[in-house]
Amino acid sequence: MSESKSAAVDIDALFRPNLEEREVEIEGVGTFRIRAMSRAELMALRGKGLDLAQIEQHMIATALVEPKLTVAQVRRWQEAAPAGVIEPLGDEIMRLSKMDKTAAKEVAKNFRDEP
Q1: pLDDT digits over 37-73, tens only?
Q2: Structural domain includes residue 16
Q3: Per 3-state DSSP, what percentage of the chain is helix, strand, and coil (rounded to 5)?
Q4: Which pLDDT tens digit goes with each residue over 30-43?
Q5: Long-range pairs, 91-96, Cβ under 8 A, ≥24
Q6: Residue 66 DSSP label
Q7: CB of 93 within 8 A of CB of 86?
Q8: Domain annotation covers residue 26
Q9: How far apart are CA 78 and CA 53, in angstroms?
Q10: Domain assignment present for 100
Q11: Which residues of 47-67 are buried (b: 16+ CB within 10 A; e: fewer)?
């Protein structure tokens, strides 16, 4: 029987920022630089009674590296853009944050269900 050895955890590495960045091209709009969200950032949204549109606003405002937009600006963009234009940003933010679409829907459900 063979023993498997797992690598020791580098405690210092746990606390180093490790939020992957990527460019996302939205046809007819331009190129956006986004980053993953940290667990702390996602958890900060909990219990705020946000609806799905507001969750998207906060996520995009938080994760946009370039250009920087405020939550109010993302809301204005949501109101002006066709429904599918902004979705690639949210999808890619969730992917970079290591959350799939199913997890994103569950997170949104949990946000709405909490007091």
Answers
A1: 998 898 888 878 899 899 999 999 999 999 999 999 9
A2: no
A3: 50, 15, 40
A4: 999 999 999 889 88
A5: 92/22, 92/24, 92/34, 93/34, 93/35, 93/36, 93/37, 93/59, 93/60, 93/63, 96/19, 96/20, 96/21, 96/22, 96/34, 96/35, 96/36, 96/37, 96/63
A6: E
A7: no
A8: no
A9: 8
A10: yes
A11: eeebeeebbbbbbbbbbbeee
- The answer to whether residues 22 and 34 touch, using CB atoms and an 8 Å cutoff, is yes
Number of domains in the chain: 1
Indicate the pTM of the whole model.
0.75
The residue to which tokens 């993953």 are assigned = 36
Report d(CA 29, CA 58) in Å as an integer: 20
Range of the domain at 81: 34-113
Asked, for residue 81, whether it belongs to a domain, the answer is yes
DSSP state of 67: S
Task: Give SS3 for 31.
Answer: strand
Task: Provide the pLDDT confidence category of residue 106 given band limits of 50, 70 and 90.
Answer: low
